[in-house]
Amino acid sequence: MSDVTKLESELLAAIGAARDETALEAVRVSALGKSGSVSALLKTLGAMTPDERKEKGPAINGLKDRVGAAIATAKESLAAAALDARLASETVDVTLPLREPQAETGRVHPISQVIDELTAIFADMGFSVAEGPDIETDDYNFTKLNFPEGHPARDMHDTFYFPPKPDGSRLLLRTHTSPVQVRTMLTKQPPIRVICPGRTYRSDSDQTHTPMFHQVEGLVIDKGSHLGHLKWILEEFCKAFFEVDSVKMRFRPSFFPFTEPSMEVDIQCRRDKGEIRFGEGNDWLEILGCGMVHPNVLKNCGLDPDVYQGFAWGMGIDRIAMLKYGINDLRAFFEADVRWLNHYGFRPLDFPTLAGGLSS
Question: Does 140 lie in the same domain as 69?
Answer without folding.
Answer: no
